[in-house]
Amino acid sequence: MQPGKRLTGKVAIVTGGASGIGAETARIFAVHGAMVMLTDANVALGESVVHDIVAAGGTAQFSQHDVRSEERWSSIVAATEASFGRLDILCNIAGISGRDPTLNIQTSLTAGPRLAEQTLEQWNLVMEINATGVFLGTKAAIPAMQRAGGGSIINISSICGIVGSHANAAYHASKGAVRIFSKAAAIQYAPDKIRVNSVHPGFVDTPMTKPGHSNPDVARKRLEVTPLGRFGTPADIAAGCLYLASDESSWVTGSELVIDGGMTAN
Q1: pLDDT band per the 50, 70, 90 thresholds, residue 163
Q2: What percent of the chain is predicted at pLDDT more than 70?
Q3: What does the alpha-carbon distance between residue 26 and residue 21 come to, in Å, rounded to a whole number?
Q4: Distance CA 149, CA 146 (A)
Q5: Measured between alpha carbons, how far apart are the two ends of the chain, in Å?
Q6: Could you give the C-alpha distances from 244 to 25, 252, 253, 262, in angstroms and in order?
Q7: Higher model confidence: residue 1 or residue 60?
Q8: Distance CA 148, CA 140 (A)
Q9: Are the C-beta atoms of residues 137 and 194 closer than 8 Å to each other?
């Protein structure tokens, strides 16, 4: 690995970029020389992250984004090419847990309803954002990356896309779909030098996990199964995304990058 900036001249779209893993990934990409199109449903937070990136000397723009909209995906890719001239990297980070969004503290050991209590509406929403959004983003990015001569697509899955647990079947199903979808896309577009990989975070402190980690019982149980003895940070996951976005991973596609403090080694 050569020292210095690792993404100089590259252009990236980062979804879910207003907070957590998405915001940290957008920041580290910009630090390493990428021009970033940051997208999120939360306009105020997204624009704040862009302001911070630009103030630090980076290059970034913000676009409001519902990842379930194919039309919006097409517009964002077109705007990225118009602003920055190409598209080299796509990070599909936007996602939801399926937890009741009004809960400040998780009241049970599960982040979502058990299978028999889960409604079709809840199931569909999780699948549409976590899995269909990844499909639509990948589909929209491929022609632009073909025009650029290749690229890297990084899809955030979860350890829940590899192992099961006692609840939240919709979340597990959506993240498992991301894992296998990434492999299929990697095989299909390898001849175009488009690499597709999935990232599998363990228990990370983010706004999405805050209600769960605010419950001492939930936090304790999660730490007990994490050999390194701490929760991950958004920076831990962003560092993995940086590797997959860079040319250092030029022979890596269809793979799973597990960043979980050893949890799945148990």
Answers
A1: very high
A2: 94
A3: 9
A4: 5
A5: 31
A6: 12, 8, 9, 20
A7: 60
A8: 14
A9: no
Q: How far is CA 88 from CA 36, 78, 82, 245, in A?
A: 10, 13, 14, 8
Question: Looking at domain 11-104+112-211+233-260, which of 3.30.70.640, 3.40.50.720, 3.40.50.300, 3.40.630.30 is its CATH number?
Answer: 3.40.50.720
Q: What is the domain partition of the chain in residue ranges?
A: 11-104+112-211+233-260
**Catalytic residue status for 171:** yes
| 175 token code pair | 């993240």
Encode pLDDT of 18-35 as tens digits.
Answer: 999 999 999 999 999 999
Q: Is the pLDDT of residue 11 over 80?
A: yes
**Helix ranges, 64-168 (H):** 70-84, 120-127, 133-148
Strands 35-40 vs 151-156: parallel, antiparallel or unpaired: unpaired
Question: How far is residue 202's CA from residue 81's CA, in Å, rounded to a whole number?
Answer: 33
Q: In sequence order, what are the beta bridge partners of 257?
A: 199
pTM higher than the cut 0.90: yes
The pLDDT, as a whole number, for residue 1 is 46
Residue with tokens 């209600």: 211
* Catalytic annotation, pick one of 29, 62, 73, 171: 171
Separation between Cα atoms, residue 131 and residue 127, nearest integer Å? 5
